[in-house]
Design brief:
Largest sheet: 22 strands, antiparallel, barrel
Structural class: mainly beta
Radius of gyration: 30 Å
Strand content: over 45%
Length: about 950
């Protein structure tokens, strides 16, 4: 295990060193005069001007991006192409993470949520054709996997804000754009087919690991005579892939256990915040742990369409629509150690409470689960641009975006017992089986050793406590918005005035319905056990993980079990899906801005930029259900609480108004050197799912209490509707050197001053119990008054090695690095510091606070390319240091993702002007994803999903 970890560290260091060497071998190009700039100016041959050299592939994309960066007023990095489907990636997320300062959170081996400048995705804002985009995750971080890169033509990241941008991005704004057909200026029919292979899926019994994706697009323009010009673009993609996964995971709830108190026949003794502050030692132990094997099927259909109509030179009307539908299923086979805190002995832990060794007893569970997800996205809108006069331009835009995600999960649990399915005594003769938990120094995977007398592959030992669950979760996110903008051009230093208003309404709702059935007839258990057994569905399970991990266990078909126990494969959801966990949030926003553009000279130095202010008012209305309780008086005068089955609706409202001034200035120090400075105030709103008003009341064990307060164990908040936007004052300065079309050096320093963080607080809320009102404290998250800051450095170097002799002058590369330093604090809801707002007293936390969600101190992105004729080769490296990742919905414990790096390879060859063949490889070194909880170094989960390989052909007609 130690050797494996050491080799992984050495391998990462080798890669970083190689990439750094590759990048800086381009430095001689910067030291030379303009001689190698043959692409910057036209060459003359015999007195005639030769045409510009036409470039394609990643070099063309990089040239376009450099040119756009130079043109923009704000500090911007981008990725765009003049051709349909030329973004160099399999998904929009993977394309974005090649842009300076952007990195992704990986799920299923692919890029999903994006963080900018090492800051969390919740601090970024994403727009699609200038409009907010909904998602099915419950947060504001768009899942970029739903947008195929082949149907997106431009990605632009605004690192600094300006008044006309839609608010919401403290870290930056990501703008996705589809094609405008009249600007394409040519007819194009394009067909593309890719086949894929997943070695991990090939390990799954009965699977070949193959998948495919097909894309078709059509762009054309028409002269409609007196009706003007009409452009049409339409594209379609179907994607069918398999993304298997193998993992070990501890539960999402961790407890501070007292190692000095022995509890032989129960869970460990829990240490409170006050006890820990007084010096009581503790070790951090999860409630449970799971080994999981996943087989997956994933199908997605995506469509985009655009119509552009210019009835006259002064009127431009654009209508666009995007649609994506995903059908996804997971077959999970779990081995659960469901009572990891039971009967603990010989606890060993470090000074941070990280558990390194423990012995205990746990029930073992064989759980089969079928998860089926359907996610549908629909977005689009109409934009009208009217040039009213030669100076006045008016734009109007109306948009709609909706995402609906529905998960149906059917699972069946079978548990260990002193008797097997035939009624015979087992070797253990107990429901609970002994286990040993060990973590070697420097390891990223715990080793769990189960009592060798228990054979985990023996189906007959999982004989009792059959439990069938059907869970249905639906999240619905909808955004309706409209905006009106006007720009008036002027002469002189002030070149134009822009003003506009925007209104939007976001609604978010979800429900989580559960049907649970238990069965205790041993004869039925035996028959279903015998009839629904399956062989372990994967070869070489966790063979790449360090330590002596389990390689298989007894598995069952959950659909067969549902049929055997209930006579149906799906009992359906409850007629009433109301629950205190449900969320119903409406957020209305009104914004107005005024911005001036300026251009002139400061002495002999050209200067340009903009300044303005944006005013934003946000109104939140959150509705939550409270479960009504009845007070029952016992014969001895004591009381007990009984759920009446009746719900009360509680509405919590919140409002905030913020002003966001901004200034951007560009100083042209030389024709090829620009200095940019920016100062602005920005805001990021909390996730919609974090604004829930529902409250779950958990009762104490027992039936005899002296008061209602004594009978209540805990009230859990499923959100904090009073959360305000996170605000920051920001300053940026960038120096940019443009040597030629292929070469750029830029360095940006930035500073962000936050006006507060988040901290758990105890707030009294009113509850109606037994017809009387009670004020009961509830722990929830609220904005703190603490000040915090982030400062950082962002560096980009792009260069083509034109100084090398042919054919090596086709080599080029780009490397970017972002360093961020933050002192932000997020407290653990269970073990962190907690504030009593009435007394102002903060009880110290037992564990350190986390930083910003998604914050990574170091982010590296590097690309090396080679272009020669029709051949294009590219290697992509991405590294991200460790970061805290919160759970969707908030009010949960701290989770950290360890630093990870990936290497992808891409190649294409143009057989002729119409046909191109392509090869791609993703995550070629099979890097896993490792998470810790609730402190760094305390292993919670590791995922393995392997490499993926693609081969395809593109045809242009």
């Amino acid at each position: 295990m130690m050797l494996s970890t050491k080799w992984a560290s050495q391998r990462r260091a080798i890669r970083c060193s190689l990439l750094a060497g590759i990048a800086f071998t381009g430095c001689p190009a910067f030291a030379q005069d303009a001689a190698p700039q043959e692409d910057q100016q036209a060459q003359t041959i015999g007195g005639a001007t030769a045409p510009d050299i036409i470039v394609t592939g990643f070099r063309e994309t990089l040239q376009t991006s450099i040119n756009e960066k130079r043109r923009e007023t704000a500090i911007v990095d981008s990725l765009s192409s003049s051709e349909v489907g030329d973004l160099p990636a399999l998904s929009v997320g993977e394309a974005i993470q090649t842009i300076t300062g952007a990195t992704s959170h990986r799920e299923k081996g692919g890029a999903s949520e994006i963080s900018l400048r090492g800051l969390g995705s919740f601090l970024s804002n994403t727009t699609f054709n200038g409009r907010d985009a909904s998602n099915g995750s419950g947060d504001r971080a768009v899942n970029f996997n739903q947008f195929p890169s082949e149907l997106v033509n431009g990605i632009k990241i605004y690192k600094t804000q300006q008044a006309d941008l839609v608010e919401g991005g403290v870290a930056g704004t990501i703008e996705l754009a589809t094609i405008r057909p009249l600007e394409f200026k040519k007819r194009r029919v394009q067909l593309e087919m890719k086949g894929s292979f997943s070695p991990y899926q090939d390990r799954v019994v009965g699977s070949d690991g193959l998948g495919w994706r097909g894309t078709a697009s059509y762009v054309d323009q028409f002269d409609a005579g007196s009706l003007g010009e009409i452009g049409v673009a339409v594209g379609f993609q179907r994607n069918k892939t398999n993304n298997p996964e193998e993992t070990y995971a501890a539960s999402s709830t961790w407890v501070a256990c007292n190692p000095a108190v022995s509890v032989p026949a129960g869970n460990c003794s829990e240490v409170s915040r006050r006890q820990a502050a007084a010096g009581t030692p503790f070790a951090l132990v999860p409630n449970a742990a799971t080994f999981r094997q996943i087989s997956e099927s994933d199908k997605r259909d995506a469509v985009f369409g655009a119509i552009q109509w210019k009835p006259s030179p002064t009127l431009d009307i654009n209508l666009d629509v995007q649609y994506s539908k995903r059908n996804y299923s997971e077959d999970r086979r779990d081995l659960n150690l469901s009572e990891l805190r039971y009967g603990l002995t010989n606890m060993e832990y470090d000074e941070n409470g990280v558990l390194t060794h423990v012995e205990g007893k746990t029930s073992l569970e064989a759980v089969g689960t079928l998860l089926e997800r359907q996610e549908e996205y629909l977005g689009g809108g109409m934009n009208v641009e009217w040039q009213a006069t030669d100076r006045l331009t008016v734009k109007a835009d109306a948009s709609y975006s909706r995402t609906v995600r529905t998960d149906v999960e059917r699972s069946v649990r079978l548990r260990t017992d002193p008797l097997d399915i035939y009624g015979n005594r087992t070797a253990i003769n107990n429901q609970r089986v002994g286990y040993i938990y060990d973590v070697a120094p420097g390891s990223y995977a715990p080793t769990l050793t189960i009592d060798p007398r228990f054979d985990v592959n023996d189906h007959s030992l999982f004989s009792d406590d059959a439990r069938l669950r059907r869970d249905e979760l639906q999240r619905r996110n909808e955004i309706i918005a409209g905006r009106l903008d006007a720009t008036y051009e002027m002469d002189g230093f002030l070149r134009g005035i822009a003003a506009g208003v925007r209104w939007s309404k976001l609604t978010y709702s979800d429900y989580d319905d559960r049907v649970e059935i238990t069965q205790d007839d041993r004869n039925v258990d035996r028959d279903v056990n015998l009839g629904c057994r399956t062989i372990f569905p994967q070869r070489d399970y966790l063979s790449n993980a360090p330590g002596g991990q389990l390689s298989s266990w007894a598995t069952f078909d959950p659909v067969c079990q549902f049929q055997g126990y209930l006579g149906t494969e799906d009992p359906g959801r409850n007629a009433d899906v109301r629950s205190v966990a449900n969320r119903d949030v409406t957020e209305k926003t009104f914004a107005a801005y005024l911005m001036a553009n300026y251009e002139g000279d400061l002495g002999s130095m050209p200067i340009r930029g903009n300044f303005g202010v944006r005013a934003v008012q946000t109104r939140v209305t959150s509705k939550g259900l409270r479960s009504d309780l009845e007070v029952v008086t016992n014969g001895d005068g004591s009381i007990r609480l009984v759920d009446s089955g009746v719900f009360d609706t509680v509405t919590i409202k919140s409002k905030s108004t913020r002003f966001l001034p901004s200034l951007n200035a560009i100083f042209e120090l030389r024709p090829d050197v620009l200095l940019r400075v920016a100062g602005y105030r920005a805001m990021s709103r909390p996730a919609p799912s974090a604004l829930g008003a529902g409250r779950t009341i958990q009762l104490e064990d027992g039936t005899n209490f002296s008061s209602v307060a004594d009978a209540i164990s805990l009230i859990t908040a499923n959100g904090s509707p009073r959360l305000k936007p996170l605000m920051s004052w920001n300053a940026d300065a960038a120096l940019e050197y443009y040597l030629n079309k292929d070469s750029l050096f830029s360095a940006t320093v930035y500073y962000k001053q936050f006006s507060g963080g988040f901290i758990p607080v105890v707030l009294d809320e009113n509850f109606s119990i037994g017809g009387q009102d009670y004020s009961i404290p509830v722990v929830q998250t609220q904005n703190s008054t603490r000040k915090s800051r982030v400062y950082g450095l962002e560096v980009t170097l792009a260069n083509r090695f034109s100084w090398l002799p042919a054919p090596f002058d086709g080599l080029g590369g780009k490397v970017s690095y972002n360093y961020a330093n933050s002192i932000f604090k997020n407290e653990d809801i269970r073990l962190g510091a907690v504030l009593d707002p009435e007394t102002g007293v903060t009880t110290p936390g037992m564990i350190p606070a986390a930083n910003l969600s998604g914050y990574s101190k170091h982010v590296v992105s590097a690309q090396l390319y080679y272009s020669l004729g029709g051949l294009n080769l590219q290697a992509i490296y991405n590294y991200r240091s460790s970061y805290y990742q919160d759970f969707v919905g908030g009010n949960s414990q701290l989770r950290y993702v360890r630093g990870n790096d990936t290497v992808d390879l891409r190649a294409s060859f143009d057989i002729n002007k119409r046909v191109q063949v392509q090869l791609q490889a993703v995550n070629i070194f099979d890097e896993p994803k490792i998470t810790d909880m609730p402190v760094q170094g305390s292993i919670r989960q590791y995922h393995y999903y392997g490499s993926r390989y693609f081969a395809g052909v593109r045809v242009k007609l």
